[in-house]
């Protein structure tokens, strides 16, 4: 995987120098059923929602394949396929626990960053997980936006709307970290520029799944390993369930 494989995001590469190649999508807005106008500001939701909504953002898709995930059996798959599969799996686990899930894509569609952010903001989400994968590194990498925290206001600049939610995003990352660690996974926490999350007005964390290195196994477990993916999804679902029961998930303002 080269530095440019995981395009349109910095999630996969912060430890290699933040290479970010922005690819403007040509077909984005038409592919989502919402008629969304991207505003210059992200308006804070007017009132708390009675429903606990979680947004799952399967990164990449359509024209943007993301990175390439090789496996030991010689097969490889694009990152966009893995993130969609993980999103579908996690959605069903959350739905089985009575959690309402909104996804940014349900198919191999090209969705631009602003549309993903707007989907989360319109959903009045209590949490958003943006899902990535990489064949580089090991374990699970969690990223929170590197925007400096600010006080919440009614109108937040679109490009930096996440700044008012940083504290709660860090709390959400801590909860996800606990669940993954409890499930026996190695977790790395980081902060970086996240174009999709930076415009979100909700607690949001980018989750990047990398091969699992376990003691006693000479070879790391591929990202695409079904059992590994299941364990990651179950741990993420456990984190969201815990987040729902946590007071920090209450309300819609940070
Ligand atoms: Zn990615």
Describe what this molecule looks like in 3D.
The protein has 254 residues and is of the alpha/beta class. It has one domain: Zn-dependent exopeptidases (Aminopeptidase). Helix content is 26%, strand content 19%. It is built from 4 helices and 10 strands; from the N terminus they run ββββαβαβββαββα. The strands form 3 sheets. The protein has a 6-stranded mixed beta sheet, with helices on both faces. Strands 1-8 form a two-stranded antiparallel ribbon. Strand 3 (68-70) and strand 4 (76-78) form a beta hairpin. Residues 1-35 have low confidence and may be disordered. The chain binds zinc ion. Zinc ion binds next to loops.
Write out key terms for the chains shown.
19% strand, 254 residues, binds zinc ion, 4 helices, globular, two-stranded antiparallel ribbon, six-stranded mixed β-sheet, alpha/beta, 10 strands, Aminopeptidase, disordered N terminus
Short précis:
The chain is of the alpha/beta class.
Give the secondary structure arrangement, pairings included.
Elements: E1 41-43, E2 53-58, E3 68-70, E4 76-78, H1 79-96, E5 100-103, H2 113-122, E6 127-133, E7 140-145, E8 155-157, H3 166-182, E9 187-192, E10 204-209, H4 226-245
Parallel strand pairs: 2-5, 2-6, 6-10, 7-9
Antiparallel strand pairs: 1-8, 3-4, 7-10
Helix pairs in contact: 1-4, 3-4
Bound molecules: zinc ion.
Gross morphology is globular
CATH topology: Aminopeptidase
Overall mean pLDDT: 83
Instruction: Quickly give the CATH architecture.
Output: 3-Layer(aba) Sandwich
Q: What fraction strand? A: 15-25%
Provide the structure class.
alpha/beta
- Bound small-molecule species: zinc ion
CATH superfamily: Zn-dependent exopeptidases
Biggest sheet character: 6 strands, mixed
Low-confidence stretches: 1-35
The rounded distance between the terminal residues' Cα atoms is 38 Å
């Amino acid at each position: 995987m080269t530095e440019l494989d995981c395009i349109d995001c910095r999630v996969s590469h912060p430890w290699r120098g933040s290479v970010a190649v922005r690819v403007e999508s040509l077909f984005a807005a038409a592919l989502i059923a919402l008629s969304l106008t991207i505003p210059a500001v992200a308006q804070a939701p007017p009132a708390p929602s009675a429903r606990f909504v979680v947004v799952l953002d399967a990164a990449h898709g359509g024209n943007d394949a993301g990175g390439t995930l090789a496996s030991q059996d010689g097969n490889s798959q694009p990152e966009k396929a893995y993130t969609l599969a993980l999103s579908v799996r996690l959605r069903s686990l959350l739905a089985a626990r009575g959690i309402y899930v909104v996804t940014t894509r349900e198919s191999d569609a090209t969705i631009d960053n602003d549309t993903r952010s707007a989907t989360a903001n319109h959903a009045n989400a209590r949490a958003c997980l943006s899902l990535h994968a990489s064949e580089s590194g090991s374990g699970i990498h969690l990223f929170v936006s590197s925007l400096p925290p600010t006080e919440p206001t009614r109108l937040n600049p679109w490009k930096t709307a996440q700044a008012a939610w940083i504290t709660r995003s860090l709390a959400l990352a801590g909860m996800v970290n606990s669940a993954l660690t409890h499930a026996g996974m190695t977790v790395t926490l980081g902060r970086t520029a996240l174009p999709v999350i930076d415009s979100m007005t909700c607690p949001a964390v980018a989750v990047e799944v990398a091969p699992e290195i376990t003691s006693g196994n000479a070879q790391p477990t591929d990202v695409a390993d079904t059992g590994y993916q299941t364990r990651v999804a179950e741990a993420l679902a456990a984190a969201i369930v815990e987040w729902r029961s946590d007071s920090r998930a209450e309300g819609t303002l940070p």
